[in-house]
Amino acid sequence: MKSKPNSLVLTAAGLTLAFGVSCPRTGQAQGDMPRYEVDPSWPKPLPDHWITGMIGGVCVDAQDHVFVLNRRNLTDHELDAGSQAPPVIEFDPEGKVVNSWGDPDVLPLGSLHSCMVDRDNNVWLTAVGDGIVQKYSHDGKLLLQIGKRSVVDSSDGTLTGKALNSGHTAFFRPSGIAFDPKNGDIYISDGEILGGNHRVAVFDRNGQFLRQWEPHRAPDETGDAWRVLVVCVAMDNDGNVYTCDRPAHRLQVFDKMGNFKKNIPIPFEPRSQYSTAGPGHSPSAWGLIVPGGWGTAVAVSFSRDPGQRFMFVTNEDDEQIEILDRATARILGHFGRGGHQLGGFTHAHHIAVDSKGNIYVGEVSTGERVQKFKIVGTS
Fold first, then answer.
1. Distance between CA 229 and CA 244 in Å, rounded?
2. Where does residue 37 rank: exposed (0-12), middle (13-18), buried (19+ CB within 10 A)?
3. Which of 37, 75, 203, 317 is the least crowded, having the fewest Cβ atoms under 10 Å away?
4. Contact 17, 8 (CB under 8 A)
5. Distance between CA 236 and CA 310 in Å, rounded?
6. Is 169 exposed, middle or buried (0-12, 13-18, 19+ CB in 10 A)?
């Protein structure tokens, strides 16, 4: 039985909100699991009246600088009150803006969806309105592009065509990026929506296609609950490749060649009962109006210790970050909760971890912010 989270702590002087990690579930190891609280001082106020829209990605470089992708979808009122923040914003570890870049006429079309920093400190981007993946220098110079802007992997090259799920130089709404720590190969999760592509596509460091594979389905996994798409990809130091099997509420693990190894359930915990006909209940990403309709696993990252002891998964349905023991895949606890206050989430999606163990969570939908969670002890 899972114990109650530690109490929310409010202090008027510092407005510090502390969210303790829930205790491990029955049968799971105790251990020195990190405990997190939100850092209300990060980031610092943005310059020049900048306002960010939905957060399209969060990633961290070797110096613990944090890159944030801004979708720039501001309302007219927000534009009256401020100005569009740049597409890519770089923060130092203290949360101060140190650089920004991104030419909308060069960046992929549509909503930015992920970023990753490679071992040479270059920044890679995807967007789900296009068929390309781009590599930029640390300061924003375009170095490499796989594919042609505005051309997608479909029967007619557009997003209205039939997805082909086979392109060697084009994608269909690519959603995530990972790198092989041994040789620098690039793994792209190509599939953000149903009816689009649903594969992991692998390229070498120069952007040449190597191979691809699709999600694994057991013979009895048929029907709407098992529809296939790939909304994230990550690789650990042991060479295991993780994908987010969002409709099925789980991660899937493969070797580098795409051979299926196992499923890791990321369960949904219903916390209220509501009428699907009531106000405020819009259809989920899959057109469903049911509890748990969005799916749970949407992003995954790892602790930065050499053994990568912990794995962190964004559980979008429960609005929390799950903490797993990477070796056993057991869920040890979580932090966060639904809500609009500091420490709460409204459509938590993107996640990144720095060398000190701090976790950065980006929110889409009406959340439109990045929050930093720092380690304050162990459980």
1. 8
2. buried
3. 75
4. yes
5. 11
6. middle
CA angle 51, 57, 60 (to 5 degrees): 105
Tokens found for residue 318:
């429960």
Helices (H), 94-239: none
* 330: helix, strand or coil: strand
Cis peptide before 270 (omega within 30 of 0): no
Q: Dihedrals φ, ψ of 84, to 5°?
A: -65, 125
Q: Six-digit token pair at 151?
A: 């051309």
Tokens of 254: 């493969």
Q: What pTM was computed for the model?
A: 0.90
pLDDT tens digits, residue range 158-179? 999 999 999 999 999 999 999 9
pLDDT tens per residue, range 191-217: 999 899 999 999 999 999 999 999 999
The neighbour count for residue 40, using CB atoms within 10 Å, is: 13
∠ CA 169-178-333, rounded to 5°: 145
Residues 6 or more apart from 219 whose CB is under 8 A from it?
none
Q: Is 73:87 a contact under the CB 8 Å cutoff?
A: no
- Residue 193 near residue 160 (C-beta atoms within 8 A): no
Other CB atoms within a 10 A radius of the CB of residue 143 amount to 12
The strand pair at 133-136 and 142-146 is best described as: antiparallel
Cα separation, 25 vs 37, in Å, equals 21
Token code pair at residue 35: 């405990």
